[in-house]
Write a structure and sequence with these properties.
Layout lengths: L5 H64 L1 H53 L1
Helix pairs in contact: 1-2
Length: 124
């Protein structure tokens, strides 16, 4: 947009510079929001997985107490449930390891986020 009016040209250049600054700020905000959302999803997933593991472990302890109260049912269920109890134990181990891995990842992401935020605050 070539114009002969210098005032109009200056205003157009200023307008273009402001538009570019706004676009860069929007991109920066989008990246920050995306990182925060990703971190929140990792932490939420880790907490949900931890809750499931704890509820399964607590549920298995309650079932063990109930089985001890009734010896006759205990003997019958040992015969039928020996394989499932082994498989459930292996499943609990796998779930526990997955939970620990997710918690470690969430811890690393949260630590990185906090360090970046602290450095940003220090620069301000």
């Amino acid at each position: 947009m070539e114009t002969s009016n210098p005032e109009k040209r200056r205003l157009l250049q200023t307008s273009e510079r402001h538009r570019q600054e706004i676009e860069s700020e929007v991109k920066s905000i989008s990246k920050s929001a995306e990182k925060a959302l990703t971190n929140a999803l990792f932490i939420g997933g880790a907490l949900a997985l931890t809750y499931l593991v704890v509820s399964q472990v607590a549920g298995s302890k309650a079932r063990k107490k109930k089985k001890k109260q009734d010896d006759q049912e205990d003997q019958e269920s040992e015969h039928h449930d020996s394989s499932p109890s082994f498989l459930s134990h292996v499943g609990e181990i796998i779930v526990t390891q997955a939970t620990m891995t997710l918690l470690e990842l969430a811890k690393d992401r949260l630590s990185d986020y906090l360090q970046k935020r602290q450095s940003t605050d220090d620069n301000s």
